[in-house]
Amino acid sequence: MQRASIATCISANTANNQRLAATFVYMNSSKNLADLSLAIVCPMANEGQKAVDFVDAVLAQCGEFRQRTFLVVLDRANKDNTLDLMNEHAKTTPDLKVIWAPENRGPVDAYVRGYKEALALNPDWVLEIDAGFSHQPSDIPVLFKKMQEGYDCVFGSRFCPGGSISDSSKKRYWISWGGTFLTNMLLGTKLHDMTSGFQLFTREALQAIVDRGIQSRGPFFQTEMKTYARRMKITEAPIQYRAASHNVGNKQIKDAFKNLWRLFSMRLAGRV
């Protein structure tokens, strides 16, 4: 009786997972970009004139879409003239929308605000990209091409074949690589890069992830989002990451381990 009960549970879980995965399959993979609308989410702070150059470079890679909206999210972390420059640039760039969010308590709030603003536009796809040319606009078409094959999410990867990371310290490199290894081992994910923030979603996929609720308050939130997408149809695309490393302090590391354990517990309970 015990064997039959276990087999029944396994069969039920497998069926549930298959139904969940099927829910998010992007059915019409043959659509041309000219038939689609795109929202771009990009939190930004203290970029100065480089912010204007970056917006223009990104939009230049997205010209094939029927409609596109570049959502720049700024908050009180911004101490220079980036907000003024973006507001001025928006006057001559109809596809640029500047979001001032003084209530944000940290970078995660800026991203979540961007996701919600993007979803409110009801786009077909949502692109997330970091400012300052750490993510290369020239890599964007690689994500678009992959998404056209019928995926729900395409994650930019520094560690998959063809990807690279430069201008960062060895410490940050090993934190990213080690975080990916540990997450894959504990959560059953299979991505080469679980910490990248350069990614493309269908509207339905991003909505499902946001609806789950993002609890991490540090950089681990990118890993949390990818974990929630593990039952969807996902893939990776190589990107060339070029940026000096941001400091990862004890607070961020503590947040990562706390949420990794939470997600591991959820996995054991069959909830991710």
Automatic annotation (TrEMBL):
Gene3D superfamilies: Spore Coat Polysaccharide Biosynthesis Protein SpsA, Chain A
InterPro entries: DPM1-like, Glyco_trans_2-like, Nucleotide-diphossugar_trans
Entry keywords, A to Z: Glycosyltransferase, Transferase
SUPFAM superfamilies, sorted: Nucleotide-diphospho-sugar transferases (SSF53448)
Top-rank taxon, per record: Bacteria
Keyword Disulfide bond carried by entry: no
Domain Glycosyltransferase 2-like stretches: 40-208
GO molecular function: dolichyl-phosphate beta-D-mannosyltransferase activity
One matching Pfam family: Glycos_transf_2
Family listed: Belongs to the glycosyltransferase 2 family.
Protein name, UniProt field: Glycosyltransferase 2-like domain-containing protein
Protein's organism: uncultured Chthoniobacterales bacterium
Lineage: Bacteria, Pseudomonadati, Verrucomicrobiota, Spartobacteria, Chthoniobacterales
